[in-house]
Amino acid sequence: MPFKNNDRSALYRLTRYWLNSPFGKEKGEWAYSVIDRKLFIETMIGTKSDLPLVEYKLHMCKGKIASSFRIEQRTGQAPIAVFLDQTGAALPEEVGGKYQRADTADTGMYAQVLKLSEILGADFDYVRVDTYTLGNDIYFGELTIYSGSGFPTLENKESRRRWNKSWDLRDTWFLQTRHTGWKARYAGDLRAYLDIANRLSP
């Protein structure tokens, strides 16, 4: 515990603050507000191993891969990362942020991570599937629809093309649900626009 002398009272105060604070409100992540807040404890991964802990973030659309991101040495002073194609090979895209780009060799676990992500992401028009690998073991991280709180942008044209091909907004809950009033008008106009855009897309 990150407290002097294992101060349980300090831990209780901190966790009560977490449970009483609406997560994501300041960034407009409204969906978190309807989820019951719970506290759970996990075992730290890799604390007794010399093997590298590798993090994968796979963006899935109806179970199909749109983008893959691999991170290594996250807790170090110079974390490295790289975008991957569907085979796990490194892409030349810049990673940005706090990461340094590095074409490190894949650990051989990408195919298994991708298969797991395809299963976990099958029921979502979009979801990011986070996993970790340590040697030959795969650990589940999280599923999120708020990747980067919804703020990341795509500078690479090929990335935008791949995303546009992968994520069909007509599969979203909003456009798959019957609405009334202004929502029905908006959904109809948006669906019509997307149908035209899909027909014109190369």
Could you walk me through the main structural features you see in this protein, from its secondary elements to its overall organization?
The termini are far apart. This protein has five helices and six strands. The chain has a six-stranded mixed β-sheet with strand order 4-3-2-1-5-6. It is α+β, with helices and mostly antiparallel strands and 202 residues long. The model has no long low-confidence stretch (mean pLDDT 85). The longest helix has 20 residues, at 181-200. It has three domains: 1-41, no CATH class; 49-153, D-amino Acid Aminotransferase, Chain A, domain 1; 168-200. The protein is globular.
Task: Work out the count of structural domains.
Answer: 3
Beta-strand fraction estimate: 15-25%
What's the end-to-end separation, in Å?
Answer: 55 Å
CATH hierarchy class name of the largest domain: Alpha Beta
On the 0 to 100 scale, the average pLDDT is 85
Summarize it.
This protein is an alpha+beta fold and 202 residues long. It has helices at 8-20, 110-120, 157-166, 173-176, 181-200; strands at residues 53-61, 64-72, 80-84, 100-101, 127-134, 137-144.
Name the features.
202 residues, D-amino Acid Aminotransferase, Chain A, domain 1, 3 domains, 6-stranded mixed β-sheet, 20% strand
Helix/strand layout:
Layout: H1 8-20, E1 53-61, E2 64-72, E3 80-84, E4 100-101, H2 110-120, E5 127-134, E6 137-144, H3 157-166, H4 173-176, H5 181-200
Parallel strand pairs: 3-4
Antiparallel strand pairs: 1-2, 1-5, 2-3, 5-6
